[in-house]
Design brief:
With 307 residues, this protein is of the alpha+beta class. It has 7 helices and 15 strands. The strands form 3 sheets. Strands 1, 2, 3, 4, 5, 6, 7 and 8 form an 8-stranded mixed beta sheet that branches. It has a 5-stranded antiparallel beta sheet with strand order 9-10-15-13-12. Helix 5 packs antiparallel against helix 6 (277-293) and helix 6 runs antiparallel to helix 7. It starts with 5 loop residues before the first helix and ends with a helix.
């Protein structure tokens, strides 16, 4: 039940580490090999491109995609690029927990094929858990400012019966969401490497624990060796338990959510670099509604557009 989250929500909001602030635009490949490039630059204009997988009977050894649709998008220097030959260079595509840089070569309208560039980012996700205490800077939480804010919020929340009330009690710490997961990443190299968790990536634990969703693309800087970082996430099942320190998560299949209403939510919030606590509640409610009803309401759609 959603109300069962209220006490956990309060604790997570007050003690979750600050959210990463760097964002990018990483493509995704789903279980059916459909490809979404959320940000592609062509002659100074940015587009979101959607492709379906295509089995070319003349070349069964290579991967092909069929262009399906496009829409205008916002973008920046980290976006994919289309050149004069219609070759698409994508610096990041996410599949099954991996970051891959690829090129798509134009074949024949409306088809592209996997090009000659296929570079695997060496960073591995070695574990995912609900144990966010391992990446908290405890000095911040022992400061007089935080202690005063905590006491004030605890007094305020005593009269709350719903999540909206709890959010109104919280100081805005810029957390990015109400819940987070701790990612352990391994970089086998000798220099830091950027690794991207894209919007739409999700992670599963046991059946009685909520799957957790990445809401906006995030760049993680992974130092040589092991790095642990906490990442803001959104719950995908209002009737299961929130993640706890004992819960471990896995990447199912491609690791990309396929619900149309989830894609709509992600499009509406794509590119946001500052998500307040009030914003995160709006997003979380929309995700829950999507997963329960298969769509979001007009009121939620308008609220997401206005974040």
């Amino acid at each position: 039940m959603k109300k069962a989250f209220l006490s956990i929500l309060f604790i997570q909001i007050m003690f979750m580490p600050l959210a990463p602030k760097a964002f990018s635009q990483c493509g995704t490949v789903a279980d059916d090999l459909s490809l979404v490039l959320p940000c592609v630059e062509y002659e100074g204009t940015y587009y979101k491109l959607n492709f379906s997988a295509y089995a070319n009977p003349a070349d069964s050894a290579c991967l092909y995609w069929r262009f399906e649709s496009l829409q205008l998008a916002s973008g920046g220097p980290s976006c994919a690029h289309i050149d004069a030959a219609l070759t698409i260079t994508a610096p990041c595509v996410y599949y099954g927990g991996k970051n891959i840089a690829i090129t798509l070569e134009y074949y024949d309208w409306p088809y592209w094929k996997l090009g000659s560039q296929f570079t695997l980012n060496p960073v591995d996700i070695t574990s995912i858990s609900g144990d966010t205490m391992q990446c908290i800077d405890t000095s911040y939480y022992s400061s007089p400012e935080f202690q005063a804010a905590l006491l004030e919020a605890m007094a305020c929340v005593q009269s709350c019966q719903d999540a909206t009330c709890i959010m109104s009690c919280m100081p805005d710490l810029g957390l990015g969401s109400a819940f987070s997961l701790a990612f352990e990443l391994y970089n086998p190299g000798i220099t830091s490497i950027e690794f991207i968790l894209p919007a739409g990536a999700f992670f599963e634990a046991s059946a009685d624990v909520q799957p957790m969703l990445i809401g906006v693309d995030e760049i993680l800087t992974v130092s040589p060796g092991i790095t642990i970082v906490c990442v803001p996430t959104y719950c995908m099942d209002g009737y299961a338990h929130a993640p706890s320190a004992e819960d471990t998560f896995a990447i199912p299949g491609s690791g990309i959510a396929q619900q149309a209403c989830i894609a709509e939510i992600l499009d509406l919030i794509r590119g946001k670099t500052e998500i307040s606590q009030a914003d995160s509640l709006i997003i979380q409610d929309a995700v829950w509604t999507c997963m329960e009803d298969g769509s979001i309401t007009e009121a939620q759609r308008a609220a997401l557009q206005n974040l």
